[in-house]
Design a protein that fits this description.
The chain is globular, with a radius of gyration of 26 Å. A hairpin with a 4-residue loop joins β7 and β8. It has helices at residues 2-36, 39-55, 59-72, 75-88, 93-102, 110-123, 134-149, 153-160, 169-182, 186-204, 213-220, 222-235, 239-252, 261-270, 274-286, 293-304, 310-330, 371-386, 407-418, 438-441, 470-485, and strands at residues 333-337, 342-345, 350-352, 360-366, 393-399, 424-426, 449-453, 458-464. It has an 8-stranded mixed beta sheet. Among the domains are: 221-331, Serine Threonine Protein Phosphatase 5, Tetratricopeptide repeat, CATH 1.25.40.10; 333-485, Glutaredoxin (3-Layer(aba) Sandwich). By secondary structure, it is an alpha+beta fold. The N and C termini lie far apart (77 Å). It is found in: Cell envelope.
Length: 490
């Protein structure tokens, strides 16, 4: 009997593996169609997904259908199917995600969030064994964040101590440590930063053959953890320990050394290593951080005995900055017609690309939840203001990929709160022929994404990501716009 049960278990396991392989193959096929398929292929996929949804009782198939219906732009069909799955399979992964989105995340207050979390893990227990549990860690960190925000540090720590995944632990700590640092509570924060640093170093030091996505993820946050702890040590006057920590980090990840420059120069300066301190400030300057110019002048004078020559030194650095920006934007150069569009602005007025012929147009794709987008906005505001008197230049901020149904009200509130005088267009209209919104037609795969169009409506540059440095963005936008004003050389 035992042998039969083992054989049955093996058989079921084999079937499950085959089923997963089939789903993976289908997912790849669906992804390719969504990304680059014809309208006919997408229409056929839509019908296939609906047929699968009608017949299937397999959760993985239904979840796949929901995901790709959303990606095809059939949100109502996806929502309808999701509601059916939630009702018929109340303990499914689809039902769990529905609970997280519509119940857990909408709780007001830490106590309510905690109660919702406990109800969630009662219905969907945290799995045991070697299963990645980062989804649960995200929820745990969310509860801890709300308690920290309310000033209940003890409860926040209690939840942070429950995090499961070592590779993600530093990211789970981060929302709470930011709140505590803003309150000046470095005593509580330091142990968490030390743990985050040790976790990241553990993965960074793994042999190459053992490094996987978890190791890469852990390493991403490493410079930030080190910089935070170094800044605390510097503020406490513990300069030697700060300097030792940062130099160890640079030795471990030399390719990320420029990310440490802001904290590194302070320790070097205090240690009397003036030339090295100035060299770190040069790195920051070339990245577009010009706020240290007076400190650079002071170090330059100390090293040379006089201020004479400093202006020429800065002028040479400015040339390097401009050269670096030009090399950077040259990699994003292209030349092709931009898709025609007609989108509504905040006032409900239609703005079309055709109406902007004769102008260089900057399209900035963003969303209210996108922190890199928001960090770039002070620089984009400054860049827009520098072209305020130029009738040949138009900045348009394309709001896309929003997750909240009240996105229009949220956008208006966000702009008013931050005093951003942006012309926002809502990317919620689909092209009748392609079935795509503008972001998809432009090939946007991540935001922030910026496109510079020339006066004839051709895309001249396409960039993803952005610097948070205001002065760098101003220089970058000037180079992009001035280049787009010139005829294409072919």
């Amino acid at each position: 009997m035992k042998l039969k049960l083992v054989a049955l278990g093996f058989c079921l396991s084999t079937m499950a593996m085959a089923q997963q392989d089939d789903l993976n193959d289908r997912s790849k096929k669906y992804y390719d169609i969504v990304q680059s398929g014809t309208k006919e292929q997408k229409d056929a996929l839509h019908k296939e997904l609906l047929e699968t949804a009608k017949k299937s009782k397999i959760e993985g198939e239904l979840e796949l259908s929901i995901n790709y219906l959303n990606q095809l732009g059939y949100e109502e069909s996806a929502d309808s199917l999701r509601n059916i799955v939630v009702k018929q399979m109340p303990k499914s992964n689809v039902a769990k995600q529905h609970y997280i989105t519509n119940v857990f995340l909408k709780q007001d207050g830490a106590a309510a969030k905690e109660k919702s979390y406990k109800e969630l893990i009662k219905k969907w227990p945290i799995p045991e064994g070697d299963v990645i549990k980062v989804g649960y860690d995200y929820l745990i960190s969310n509860v801890a964040h709300d308690y920290a925000k309310e000033g209940n540090t003890g409860k926040a720590i209690q939840y942070l101590d429950q995090l499961n995944e070592r590779f993600w632990r530093g990211q789970g700590y981060a929302p709470v440590t930011r709140i505590l640092l803003n309150k000046g509570d470095t005593t509580t924060v330091i142990p968490f930063l030390k743990v985050a640093i040790k976790d990241a170093e553990y993965y960074i030091n793994l042999p190459k053959e053992q490094q996987d996505n978890r190791a890469g993820f852990a390493a991403v946050g490493y410079p930030g953890y080190v910089a935070q702890l170094v800044n605390i040590y510097n503020a406490q006057g513990n300069y030697e320990e700060a300097l030792a920590l940062i130099e160890e980090a640079i030795t471990l990840v030399p390719d990320q050394a420029p990310q440490f420059s802001g904290a590194y120069y302070k320790g070097l300066d205090v240690a009397g290593r003036k030339l090295e301190a100035l060299q770190q400030l040069e790195i920051l300057y070339k990245q577009g951080t010009f706020s240290y110019k007076e400190k650079m002048k002071s170090l330059y004078s100390e090293l040379n005995g006089v201020e004479t020559g400093f202006d020429g030194y800065i002028a040479r650095l400015d040339q390097d900055v401009t050269k670096g920006v030009r090399e950077h934007i040259a990699k994003s150069a292209q030349y092709k017609p931009a898709p025609q569009f007609e989108l509504l602005n905040l006032k409900g007025e239609v703005v079309s690309l055709a109406s902007l012929k004769g102008k260089v147009v900057v399209l900035d794709f963003w969303a209210t939840w996108c922190q890199p987008c928001i960090r770039s906005f002070p620089g984009m505001k400054a860049a827009q203001e520098s072209y305020q008197a130029d009738p040949e230049v138009e900045f348009l901020f394309i709001n896309t990929w929003e997750r909240d149904k009240e996105y229009k009200a949220n956008v208006a509130s966000f702009l008013e709160k931050n005093d951003y005088p942006f012309e926002v267009l809502f990317d919620d209209q689909k092209n009748a022929e392609t079935g795509k919104n503008l972001a998809a037609e432009m090939g946007v795969n991540g935001i922030p994404a910026k496109f510079i169009l020339d006066k004839e409506g051709n895309i001249r540059y396409a960039l993803t990501g952005s610097s948070p440095n205001v002065d760098y963005i101003k220089i970058e936008m000037k180079e992009l716009i001035d280049s787009a004003k010139k005829p294409h050389k072919g």
